[in-house]
Amino acid sequence: MAGFACPWHYRAKLNEGGFKEKICHVLWPFLGGAFIVFVAAYSALTSFEMLTNIMGFGGLVLGFIPLALNRKRGGTVKPDAKAITGRV
Known about the structure:
By secondary structure, this protein is mostly helical. The chain has five helices and no strands.
């Protein structure tokens, strides 16, 4: 999930930053996340029984429910500046 969350968070760097920022903050994490999903899907479809596949993909779907509810509610997590820097 972090492989997709990082590019989503830093997607503004595609227009602002230079080549290094585009690679390090967006492209490389996305490619890593996509490769891991590919390997997991390939392994699940060729190695496991149907019940194992249903349980694994069902767990992923259940994980997206809180995400969808939070997005619908319009909730975002914003860091507390005092907690990060220790200053007011």
